[in-house]
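2024-03-11 09:14:02 DEBUG pipeline.ingest accepted 1 chain
2024-03-11 09:14:02 DEBUG pipeline.ingest length=168
2024-03-11 09:14:03 DEBUG pipeline.predict start
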Amino acid sequence: MLCDLCKKTDATVHLTQIVEGKVMKVDLCENCSKNKGVQDTAAFSLADLLVGLGGTEESKGEKVPGLKCAACGLSQEDFKKTGRLGCAVCWETFAQGLGSLLKAMHKSELHTGKVPSKAAHTVVLTEQIKTLNMELQKAVQAENYEEAARIRDQVRALESKLKAGVPA
């Protein structure tokens, strides 16, 4: 298993922290753990490590001018304490470190969400109908009426499946 920070060396330090009932895990190599001051558990937070918002300057006693959200006023320090953002603008303000944090915690930077299994067929059919309607508009604009009629029939068939509740 590679270090979550440098992605080069094998991880030998494995940290687990539970914050508000959520488990956060980090795997580090010796060098990265020493650089981040992992041995000093009193001044260590996984959020600081993953987001890269603290550690070196603050642990030396120097004050670092922090970022502050222009919309809600959330500061870097507030974000480090709570682990939560205040508003949508915070995503832009703290964007530099959030990508690596999300990737480390969720293995992806993209939120895909979850759909209940009973509703999954509805979502699939709706997306197919939406795509076909866009194709239908293009076919009509291109005056390709035979293709448009074929697509229209497909849309009608999918809409009847959707109304009947039949899986895709």
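2024-03-11 09:14:41 DEBUG pipeline.report The radius of gyration is 25 Å.
2024-03-11 09:14:41 DEBUG pipeline.predict end
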